[in-house]
Design a protein that fits this description.
It is a single chain. The radius of gyration is 20 Å and the shape is globular. The longest helix is centred in the first third of the chain and has 33 residues. It has 15 helices and no strands. It has 338 residues and is an all-alpha fold. Helix content is 76%, strand content 0%. The chain has a single domain, classed as ABC transporter involved in vitamin B12 uptake, BtuC, CATH 1.10.3470.10.
């Protein structure tokens, strides 16, 4: 069940490096990932500090926790989602959560105005965003999931269609806004780790930890799900129950992360596939741990480059989308050749 390299294909330096790393024991690879994650976090927290030390440490620590929470939660959610959909180029973002987040912000400003939204308690706004996206995901799963083998494919297809619909509605509503309201919406939907509310961060971190904790008992069952629906049922697994619980956990992880910092569309694609390449195993306890660590490295390292090296001339989202887009194209070409 592990990924096997194709024989006879010319290998580049990146592929050669991945193949050499994959010869090491998994425990060693996880240890190296954990060491890199700690090193990146310490570098982000203490390197290139300017201005008041106390203020910088407090601000960076909040950003650090937010980056780690989003990276780890997104990584675990994507690995679980790819397992139940049996497709390694899909992410929870295809279900339309990012587009729904933008639509909710735009419609709120359209109906009530930017002044009310700005004055609204950030905790209420967070709960509204997270609640709407969670309810959307749960209703979508409950509506679509039936007893046929094509349910998940239909679910993904409808998610893509709804994402396109939400995006079109957002574009239409944004054209009806005043210039000031439009700028407010752009600030709200723009992914940012610079101003993180401590209370919202605490809520998101707790929910993420609880959701990942609820996912841990499912890891062994997801190992069986990897074999396919028919084989899993033959082995005595309650396939529908496992898939339902997995999708609920994925929904909660994605909804809370998006409500905290905004859309992060392609980060899950990068993190999950790197974990599967560097850790070629069917065990989800290993894959989830590796995805969480890689997610922490990618988010913290990317934000450090954007903020400290490029001096905010670019953003983490731009970097992730660029790298993720190139990586996605490479994955599609790789799948086509297999």
């Amino acid at each position: 069940m592990s990924t096997t390299a194709t024989v006879g294909r010319p290998a580049g330096p990146v592929v050669d490096s991945i193949r050499r790393v994959r010869r090491w024991p998994i425990s060693v690879r996880l240890g190296i990932m954990a060491s890199i994650a700690v090193g990146v976090a310490l570098t982000y927290q203490f390197a290139l500090v300017t201005g008041a030390w106390d203020y910088a440490m407090s601000l960076r620590f909040r950003q650090l926790v937010a980056l780690a929470t989003v990276g780890a939660g997104t990584g675990v959610a994507t690995v679980m989602f790819q397992t139940v959909t049996h497709n390694r180029i899909l992410t929870p973002g295809v279900m339309g959560f990012d587009a729904l987040f933008r639509l909710v912000q735009t419609m709120f400003v359209w109906f009530f105005g930017s002044a009310i939204l700005v004055d609204l308690d950030v905790r209420v706004r967070f709960l509204v965003n997270a609640g709407v996206m969670t309810i959307f995901g749960l209703l979508l799963y409950r509506w679509i999931l039936r007893r046929t083998t094509r349910d998940l494919f239909v679910l993904v297809l409808i998610g893509i269609v709804l994402g396109t619909l939400f995006g079109s509605l957002t574009l239409f509503a944004s054209r009806l806004l005043s210039p000031d309201d439009y700028l407010t919406v752009q600030d709200l939907v723009f992914t940012s780790f610079n101003t993180i509310d401590p209370q919202l961060l605490t809520i998101t971190a707790i929910v993420t930890v609880l959701a990942i904790g609820a996912a841990v008992p499912l890891f062994r069952q997801l190992d069986v799900v990897t074999l396919g629906r028919d084989n899993a049922i033959t082995l005595g697994l309650d396939y529908r129950r496992v898939v339902d619980r997995t999708l609920i956990i994925v929904t909660v992880l994605v909804a809370t992360s998006t409500a905290l910092v905004g859309p992060m569309t392609l980060i899950g694609l990068i993190v999950a596939n790197l974990a599967r390449q560097l850790l070629p195993t069917f065990r989800h306890s290993v894959l989830a741990t590796g995805s969480a660590l890689i997610g922490v490295i990618v988010t913290i390292g990317g934000q450090f480059l954007a903020a400290r090296i490029f001096d905010f001339t670019t953003t983490l989202t731009v970097c992730v989308n660029f790298v993720g887009g190139v990586y996605f194209i490479w994955l599609l070409m790789r799948e086509a050749k297999l």
